[in-house]
Design goal:
seven-stranded mixed sheet; Phenylalanyl-tRNA Synthetase, Chain B, domain 3; 587 residues; Phenylalanyl-tRNA Synthetase, Chain B, domain 1; EC 6.1.1.20; 27% strand; PheRS_beta_core; PhetRS_B1; alpha+beta; cytoplasm; 15 helices; ligase
């Protein structure tokens, strides 16, 4: 779920009313949003960078608001304000006007673009007036869209240009990297595409996008009539046509591998910022010529109509309202509606800002939001059902209590961990570990799903070295193991893990916890009908001090004294003993 940060004073000024934090939180809840945090830019930087934050950082109050992932129209201050004002009945939904295209602003695609990013759309905003706040919002919306629907520019890349600095018609081409040379945004000299790729390989923000086109024999490029490079999507725009506060006319182009997403992105941007045009909510279309000479007009800004049954809407939500009331509720969500068939049917106009509405259930949800979830009367289920606690969860709760009674403190650790945590630090190769790998990990700390609970507890010990010894921790949670016989290729396994850390290893204490658990589970110390310990070797444990826990002939876990190499890997200096067993066979 995306989170946007908006200046509180700017937001209240645009809404025409000042709220307390609690009042605004209530308004967000009624509108289907969540006020996540009240903070300042300085506090946000302190969280990210530590205590040392330079002088001059703003301390104005910021509201961080969680936005549903499919509500692209709420990702900026402009859309959020319009949505809230319409919801409160203080203004009607905006009516967008499409202005006729001008041939000089057309965009022509060459056949070569089919090799890399085959689609493009374009639009023009004329007579726009930027302030510092609206300019920042304009840039921030593009960034939010890039990270959200554009999937980090892999599906769509947005370029915005000062129309008065360039001349159309424009050409979208794909050229060998060495044939592309221009002055990139905020650079002082012209560089070729390979030089730019090398330059941005260490750039904090742009380096993540280089792989999208790096290995392609051709790079996409957009030029104007005079050969001036506007952008090399999806990496960087040209410096010549950069947007400033003085820009009055904006040319917007989106190149894409997914045409539908590009249409949604373009519609969203022009819908949000056409309010700053001299003719409010007016957008000029552009002709976009395909390589075969045919053309389409963009943006589409389509308003479509949907029809839903009043009876069905009431039944699904659990309310009893007439058609006129339901139409009024939908209109508060920017979905202008009218009744037909003597109030039995609703005809709903879905505007170009609401691309999230793809089915009648989306309309039912908006009715419920506008009606108020807290106003919907609770009612018992109409179907007779039986339910009960899952046996493995019931056993988990019982064992948690007993581990706590034995003097152990429960820890809840991350389900994701690094490859080193489940392999290298334990003295094994990652190839030999049945771990489920994350295909696109955000950080080095979250690369795989844990296959053991032990590393998480050791990291918890390392983070609490100042606590008095001995430290006794336990956790009962799931691990995930690759399993080709499972439908998903992996399976969950519930385990109990306990660690003792003190002046001495305390093996007898974790052994005692094992015996106590087995006694409660009514498993006798017997090779044939119960459990026993069998010596084994594991590189994570001290040589000769590791045993496998065997239950009726099957190994269900290990217990022993941890080896010095493992303790050093987790930056621990005191001896430790550990127990980890699979508890699912006991259900």
């Amino acid at each position: 779920m995306p989170t946007i940060s908006v200046n509180r004073d700017s937001l209240f000024s645009a809404l025409g009313k000042t709220y307390t934090d609690d009042e605004f939180q209530e308004l967000c809840f009624e509108f289907g949003l969540e006020l996540d945090e009240v903070t300042t830019e300085k506090q946000m930087l302190m969280k990210e960078q530590g205590e040392h934050v330079g002088a001059g950082v703003s301390e104005e109050i910021l509201y961080r608001i969680d936005i549903p992932a499919n509500r692209y129209d709420l990702l900026c201050l402009e859309g959020l304000v319009d949505g809230l004002l319409v919801f409160q009945g203080k203004k009607p939904p905006p009516q967008y006007v499409l202005k006729k295209y001008e041939d000089c602003h057309s965009l022509h695609l060459t056949p070569a673009t089919g090799q890399i990013r085959p689609y493009a759309v374009a639009a023009v905003l004329k007579g726009i007036t930027f302030t510092k706040e609206s300019y920042d919002s304009f840039i921030d919306l593009q960034d939010k869209l890039h990270q959200n629907i554009c999937r980090k520019r892999t599906l769509v890349a947005i370029g915005t240009h000062d129309l008065d600095t360039i001349q159309g018609p424009f050409v979208y081409d794909a050229l060998p990297p060495t044939d592309i040379k221009f002055k990139a945004l905020n650079q002082t000299k012209e560089m070729t595409a390979p030089e730019l790729m090398e330059l941005y390989s260490t750039h904090a923000q742009l380096k993540q996008y280089l792989g999208i086109i790096r290995d392609s024999p051709v790079y996409p490029v957009i030029k104007d009539k005079n050969g001036i490079v506007l952008s090399m999507p999806p990496i960087i725009n040209g410096d010549h046509s950069k947007i400033t506060l003085d820009t009055k006319n904006v040319f917007i182009e989106c190149t894409a591998t997914d045409l539908t997403k590009a249409i949604v992105v373009l519609d969203t941007i022009v819908s949000m910022f056409s309010k700053y045009c001299s003719n409010q909510y007016e957008v000029e279309q552009c002709k976009v010529f395909a390589p075969d000479g045919t053309y389409e007009l963009y943006p589409k800004m389509c308003t479509r109509e949907e029809t839903i049954s009043v009876e069905k809407a009431n039944n699904y939500i659990g309310i009893s309202e007439n058609g006129d009331n339901l139409a009024s509720l939908l209109s508060r969500m920017c979905l202008s509606s009218t009744t037909e068939d003597d109030g039995r049917t609703l005809r709903v106009r879905v505007p170009p800002t609401r691309h999230d509405v793809i089915h009648a259930c989306d309309l039912y949800e908006d009715i419920a939001i506008a009606y108020g979830y807290n106003r919907i009367v609770r009612r018992p289920a109409r179907v007779v059902t039986t339910g009960g606690q899952d046996p493995i969860n019931k056993l988990t709760e019982q064992l948690r209590q007993e581990c706590a009674h034995a003097g152990y403190t429960e820890a809840l650790t991350f389900t994701l961990c690094s490859r080193d945590d489940v392999a290298t630090k334990l003295g094994v190769k990652i190839e030999d570990v049945p771990a489920a790998h994350i295909s696109n990990p955000k950080t080095l700390e979250f690369q795989v799903v844990r296959t053991l609970l032990l590393p998480g507890l050791l990291k918890t010990l390392a983070a609490n070295k100042k606590m008095p010894l001995p430290m006794k921790l336990f956790e009962i949670s799931d691990v995930v193991l690759q399993d080709k016989s499972a439908e998903t290729g992996a399976r969950n396994e519930r385990r109990l893990c306990a660690v003792h850390c003190g002046r001495a290893a305390g093996f007898q204490l974790v052994h005692g916890l094992l015996d106590r658990a087995m006694a409660l589970l009514r498993e006798p110390w017997d090779k044939d009908t119960g459990y026993y310990l069998k010596q084994c070797e594991d590189p994570a444990y001290f040589p000769g001090r590791c045993a496998a826990v065997v239950l009726r002939g099957e190994v269900v876990g290990k217990v022993g004294v941890l080896g010095p190499a493992l303790l050093a890997a987790f930056e621990l200096t005191n001896p430790c003993s550990a127990l980890e067993i699979n508890i699912q066979p006991f259900v």
